[in-house]
Backbone:
């Protein structure tokens, strides 16, 4: 089995102070994709280069104390891709891809693991517009990647796709993270690639048509109807965590060859490293 974890840290130094290293050592993932490092290279050197024997690879934001993603792995990658080619969003440290290409491997000889942190639009119209720009340019990137290799994208997507993915869906239909345009984007990403493209391009201005779709929301494949136990994020306001007033914002999105091998999923709600819970999925394949 290949054990893959995704976790928004909301600051790696803060998460470390809350026991991140010990938890990784105990849970023993093969890879852990992290988001929101809120740190620069000098902050990690000698302290967070490795966690529990897993070597880290990172994409830092230009702005200090902001965003940043990484992947810690037990396995040596064949290539490391930092950023996805966006002048605007690569500056924010939102994408790192490790390639584990093995020409002689029967199952998925070309394979990538990606850690991504989608923008949030909750702070206002300007950031929501940026989020839509990100979605519009990121879809064709994923579609093109899917044409050439298998991959699992782990990350804080900042979108609750379905009504069962958040506690109070009726009161959040006009709020960032559950807007119709965002949900349509997710639906299109998960739509069978053979079907005609429809909703996302119509709803998100400036998006480009592209081949693709057909991705798998791995957790939902394993747990299609789970509600409260599926949440991965809780607001720090009020008693959201205590009352489980949460959202499912963290995902594994995989190409079918990988996604269909998923055997079990766990959301580690009691591990309070940040306002997000770690999401771990076991896949029936080996690097």
Residues:
């Amino acid at each position: 089995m290949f054990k893959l974890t995704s976790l928004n840290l909301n600051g790696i130094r803060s998460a470390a102070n809350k026991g991140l290293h010990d938890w990784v050592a105990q849970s023993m993932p093969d890879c852990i994709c992290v988001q929101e490092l809120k740190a620069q290279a000098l902050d990690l050197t000698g302290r967070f280069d490795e966690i529990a024997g897993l070597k880290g690879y990172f994409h830092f934001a230009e702005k200090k104390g902001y965003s940043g993603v990484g992947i810690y792995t037990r396995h040596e990658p064949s290539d490391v891709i930092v950023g996805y080619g966006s002048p605007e969003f690569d500056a924010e440290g939102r994408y790192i891809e490790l390639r584990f290409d093995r020409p002689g491997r029967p199952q998925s000889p070309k394979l990538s693991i990606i850690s991504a942190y989608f923008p949030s639009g909750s702070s206002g119209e300007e950031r929501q517009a940026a989020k839509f720009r990100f979605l519009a340019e990121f879809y064709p990137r994923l579609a093109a990647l899917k044409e050439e290799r298998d991959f699992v994208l782990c990350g804080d997507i900042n979108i609750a796709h379905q009504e069962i993915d958040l506690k109070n869906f009726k009161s959040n239909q006009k709020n960032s993270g559950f807007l119709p345009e965002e949900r349509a984007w997710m639906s299109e990403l998960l739509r069978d690639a053979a079907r005609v493209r429809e909703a996302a391009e119509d709803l998100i201005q400036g998006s480009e048509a592209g081949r693709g779709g057909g991705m798998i929301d791995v957790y939902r494949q394993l747990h299609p109807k789970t509600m409260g136990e599926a949440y991965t994020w809780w607001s720090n306001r009020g008693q959201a965590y205590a009352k489980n007033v949460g959202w499912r914002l963290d995902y594994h999105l995989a190409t079918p060859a990988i996604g269909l091998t998923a055997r079990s999923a766990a959301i580690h709600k009691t591990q309070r490293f940040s306002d997000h819970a770690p999401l771990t999925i076991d896949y029936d394949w080996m690097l």
User: Anything to note?
Assistant: Confidence is low (pLDDT under 50) at residues 193-212. The longest strand covers residues 2-8.
